[in-house]
Amino acid sequence: MEHPLVVGIDGSDSAFRALEWAADEAALHGLPLRVVYASR
Predict the structure, then answer these.
(1) Dihedral sign, CA of 24, 28, 34, 36?
(2) CA nearest 19: which of 40, 39, 36?
């Protein structure tokens, strides 16, 4: 089993950009994506 790519988000614009990047990278490398949400 491959390790997932993990990205943390908090609702900010920069976190949304990080999520987009992580989704692209996960798809490119065939990895599962795990999204962790943290409230501010």
Answers:
(1) negative
(2) 36
What pLDDT, in 10s, does the model give residues 11-37? 999 999 999 999 999 999 999 999 999
What domain count does the chain have?
Answer: 1
The confidence score (pLDDT) of residue 19 equals 98
pLDDT at 8 exceeding the cut of 70: yes
Full domain range(s) for residue 10? 5-37
Note the pLDDT of residue 1: 66
Report d(CA 40, CA 38) in Å as an integer.
Answer: 6
CA distance 3 to 20: 19
